[in-house]
Amino acid sequence: MRSDIQHAGQVNTAETTMLRIAMLGTGFIGRFYTQALHGKRAQDRVQIVFGRDARRAETFARQHGIPHSTTSIEQAVRAEDVDAVVIGLPNHMHEAAVNVAAAAGKAVLCTKPLGRNTDEALRMLKAVEEAGVFHAYLEDLVYTPKTLKSLQSVRDGAVGDVLWVRSRETHPGPHSDWFWNKEMSGGGAIIDMGCHCIEIARSFIGKDVRPVEVFCWADTHVHPIEAEDHAVGMVKYANGAIGQFEVSWAFRGGMDLRDEIAGTEGTIWLNHWLRTGIEMFTAGGQSGYVSEKAESENGWLFPVGDELTALGYVDMFADVLSAMEESRKPREDFYDGYVVNAIIDAAYRSVDSKRWETVRLPLWRGREDVDRVGALREYDANHLLIKEEKMPDGTTKVILRHKESGKIIQQTQ
Fold first, then answer.
1. CA atoms within 13 A on the CB side of 142
2. 46 and 66 Cβ atoms separated by less than 8 Å
3. Which of 167, 223, 250, 363 has most Cβ atoms within 10 angstroms of its Cβ?
4. pLDDT digits over 237-251, tens only?
5. Domain membership flag for residue 342
6. 160 domain-assigned
7. What angle, 0 to 180 degrees and rounded to 10, lies between the N-to-C axes of helices 118-131 and 94-103?
8. 199 and 341 fall within a common domain
9. pTM for this prediction
10. What was the pLDDT predicted at 294?
11. Domain check: are 272 and 240 in the same one?
């Protein structure tokens, strides 16, 4: 074990050296994670990979230059040359893997969603905190370059108070069979992609602001499954802000990742995937991979220059592994994953009840008293300003509300 790793997975900041990682999972996300880890922060290396299929694990290790592979989670986690465990497994395997890592005193980084429900997530949070190990929630979409830039703009006051965040993720459906199994995954499009959208909204609204209620509609449109393949939901926060999520496994045309942030003083629109700078038409077809969830290799294509960076993986691991070295909290940890699971549970209850459902958070670490977003704008001693607009003839129209009578009037200047 490296000498600068302290007890319970905490790292001494005196020296920055290679972090050695056990990768649990050889699927789509495990591949993205490994490529990101071996990329910009090249000193960090995956030392051993776990896979349920021995031949696939051996092939994965060979392709990525990983020294060891195994079909035993315990062997991967407890290896002496492993400092941190990255969980890229199906949802139903998260809790068991977290418990093994926590018991071994290893830092643990878990993919989204943290659990299949709030109870699982809370048990995982307690496991890592009681063991005293470093923990991170691998929510990549809050780390995209566009999101990070926009979050800084919001902190700098560019949009005023954030009133509403709309986040959308849609595509034709996930790539592995377990996603479609409700028992293994915990649900459908809501838990698969709503977790991204919910945490994006929390990041812009303020993660210390309590989510209080959720209203959600969901249905199964085109796939013969028990879970939902399409959903729209709204999350109401204690300060009056709204987070809206739109998710679908029934969308055709690739993957659509968009966010919209509306505030009292401005608006931000983000398009992370489709039509973001590269558009290509081919009549003959392109041989090979185009981009994640692309549905064709001919016609109009929208390749992505650097998927690992565009989807946030590179900046996510840079933050998380630096946080390990500096003994600080990463941007996202298991507590955040637990809050997201609580919101998702409320969404599923709302789908069934067809009404607003309370977000149940037995463990809440944010603020209890928050100011309501938005503010009334004074125009003069007697009036509040509703709107001021420059008209085509060059005049300015002002719409006002009288403070005492409530009468609405307009003036042209």
1. 27
2. yes
3. 167
4. 999 999 999 999 999
5. yes
6. yes
7. 10
8. yes
9. 0.89
10. 64
11. yes
Q: How far apart are CA 110 and CA 162, in angstroms?
A: 29
Q: Which domain holds residue 186?
A: 142-312+328-358
For residues 106 and 48, what is the distance between their CA atoms, to the nearest angstrom? 14
pLDDT reading at 52 higher than 90:
yes
Q: Tell whether 122 is covered by a domain.
A: no
pLDDT value, residue 115: 98
Check whether residue 146 and residue 295 sit in a common domain.
Answer: yes
Q: How far apart are CA 188 and CA 247, in angstroms?
A: 10
198 and 340 in a single domain? The answer is yes
Contact 218, 231 (CB under 8 A): yes
CA distance 175 to 181: 12
Q: Say if residue 355 is exposed, middle or buried (CB neighbours under 10 Å; 0-12, 13-18, 19+).
A: exposed
87 part of a folded domain: yes
Residues 153 and 79 in one domain: no
